[in-house]
Amino acid sequence: MPEQELSLLIRLKDEASAQLKQLNKEIEGNAKAWHDNFAAVQTQAKQEGIALAAYGAIITGVFAMSYKASEEERLAIARLANTLGNLGISYTDVKSDLEGYIETTKKATGISGSEQMAALSQLLLTTRDYGKAIQLLPIALDLAKRKTMDYGTAALLLGRVMEGNTTALSRQ
């Protein structure tokens, strides 16, 4: 009988060992699967983090460019208002018509409002006549585009020509 008990104990031990080995394999497999899943999640999180950082940089850049454009617009309005004031014209009196004209031209040509206002200011300084400056503005903008020069220079050149200084053309 002791041999039967010993045989039973050995058989139980062997079965328990086999079950423990099987359980250990399952635990190792689950641990590997968990590790692989964790690594995949970690990789995806890194990629999403990089994408979010890129989006953040883009948004920051857009805001910076928007701020710069609005600041340029504000300065151009201030310069134009000052130039008009020197001619005895109140910017507030011509504001709605002028902004409508500039916006229409901007949509048609893509030339920013601040660039148009800079050219108009230069035309006003040269011609000292608001009506004439408004009439010459499209010509100055076209001249600048065709000759690849800045709008202020084109307006200055055109204003001088309109004042009778044709030698300004020979220098360009």
Describe the structure.
This protein is an all-alpha fold and about 170 residues long. About 90% of the residues lie in helices and about 0% in strands. It is built from six helices and no strands. α3 packs across α4. The longest helix is centred in the N-terminal third of the chain and has 85 residues. The protein is rod-shaped. The N and C termini lie far apart (about 120 Å). The mean pLDDT is about 85.
What's the helix and strand layout?
Elements: H1 2-86, H2 91-109, H3 113-127, H4 130-147, H5 151-162, H6 167-170
Helix pairs in contact: 1-3, 3-4, 3-5, 4-5
Characteristic key phrases:
mainly alpha, 172 residues, 6 helices
